[in-house]
Amino acid sequence: MVIWMTDGWPLYESRLKGKLHVISKRYTQRIERHNLNLEAAPGTAGTEVAVVTQNRWSCMTKSSGII
């Protein structure tokens, strides 16, 4: 399930017609804090991406029978 949370810009309303669309600023602070933490710690962001990539490769190779 995808919930689109946007501000009240009319273009969003026309593009998201028929989808679960909520006009709200409820999670704005949480999202901004998360983005700021990613920018503030550039060394850890690369590490997280490498770990996720490695895990995905590992899962792909196991499921396809390569390993």
What does this protein structure show overall?
- With 67 residues, this protein is mainly alpha-helical.
- The chain has one domain.
- The chain has 3 helices and 2 strands, in the order βαβαα.
- The protein has a two-stranded parallel ribbon.
- Helix 1 links the parallel strand 1 and strand 2.
Give the gist of this structure.
The chain has 67 residues and is mostly helical.
Radius of gyration: 18 Å
Shape: elongated
Tell me the number of strands.
Answer: 2
Distance between the termini: 34 Å
Q: Identify the strand order in the major beta sheet.
A: 1-2
List the helices and strands and how they pair.
Blueprint: E1 4-6, H1 10-15, E2 21-23, H2 28-40, H3 42-64
Parallel strand pairs: 1-2
Key terms:
Transposase, mainly alpha, elongated, 3 helices, two-stranded parallel sheet, DNA binding, transposase activity, Transposase_27
